[in-house]
Amino acid sequence: MAPDFHTCRHTVLFYRDAGAVRASVTGYVEAALRAGHPALVIARPELAHDLTIELHRCHVHGRPFGPDRGELLVLDAEATLDSLCLAGRPDEARFREVVGAALASLATGHKRVAAYGEMVGVLCERGRYADAVHLESLWNALLAESDASLFCGYPRHLFQPPEARGFYEQIRAAHAETLDDEDGAGPTGTYPSRAGARACASSARE
């Protein structure tokens, strides 16, 4: 259950099982690297470590990566988030200086960058849901100017508190595609998930 980096501009995965997000991110990044495209991963150390192991396993025990493998850049989610905040809130200028520069450094040779990010999830864990929505809007503005695909991951339990459920809908609306490791479940498992606001096919035509 991983988005196609060629066709989807901005995808979100709501997950309960950490193994599900690990498998999804590995599949997403592996597909990009095998196609010779670069990948940017902004993740917490646990996922970054697991991704390194899984990619090595794919190379050694699966189909080896060839000489045209894309470049992989991994950044720490919490450190990167803190570096782009001003007065505790994601700042557009700093976001472009940090994340925009990272994307630009990888976007060589007309290759689409496959990005995965957990900074929005970190904000929600800190109880800063409105800032997570704001950061999603900064990402969307950057994606509109870049040849890149973004995959975001949110633990579903973050949206179980009543005060967080409205933000769940806002975050879904910021994405072109919504994935869920429990098909049809909302944040509490009590109401169905709706389709993404925009079809991935439209992204492919941009």
UniProtKB/TrEMBL annotation:
Matching entries from Pfam families are given as: MEDS
The segment(s) forming the MEDS domain are: 9-164
Q: Where is this region: Disordered?
A: 178-206
Bias (Low complexity): 193-206
Protein name as annotated = MEDS domain-containing protein
